[in-house]
From TrEMBL:
Domain NAD(P)-binding: 8-184
Pfam families, sorted: NAD_binding_10 (PF13460)
Protein name: SDR family oxidoreductase
Xref: PANTHER family: FLAVIN REDUCTASE-RELATED (PTHR15020), UPF0659 PROTEIN YMR090W (PTHR15020:SF50)
Organism in which the protein naturally occurs: Gaetbulibacter aestuarii
Amino acid sequence: MENILVAGAHGNVGKRIINLLKNSQYFTPIALARKDEYVEDFKKDHVKVVKGDITSDIDHAFHAIDKVIFAAGSGGERLTEVDENGAKNMIKAASKAQVKKFVMLSSMGAEHPEKADQLQDYLKAKHKADEFLKESGLKYTIVRPGHLTNEKGTGKIKLDLKLNEHGHISRDDVAQTLVRALQDDAPKNVTFEILQGETLIGKALSEVQ
């Protein structure tokens, strides 16, 4: 069993990630929690938890960690502090700890934020974090979904390095894609976009070139 540190574990996608990891035969979730009440929530749910804030020194959270999923977000209020610098802090700590893989939840549009009609500042922060990860020397997968919904997941997606279309995808399917990207046979050192689609998530990932 590999220990997976999840940043943003108390968020909408993060909670789904934790549940998937809890039920996995390969992974043990370690929730990274910023607030005391979040720590207590995870303990009540019998999830291992470490208290830490990604906007400050986070090295202590990486004890015995094998891989990382970064699903944290500021909700648009502290973009540079959380979405950019928080991610960079996690990447630096992951590099020091020599984790095997870093899976990043990004966003469609982060490749060229200057072209976006809206959310430019958010996409700029995500772009800088993604580029920092690419240059870190860590093995990585960067997942860029379209608009997130709370619809029930289908286990099927549309995936390509660049989809050249807009659309939506359920948080369930995003979480499943991020967890599936942890597998040793999943693509590494690659960035791709995902939307709701008709291809099983495992098959879509296996076809990434």
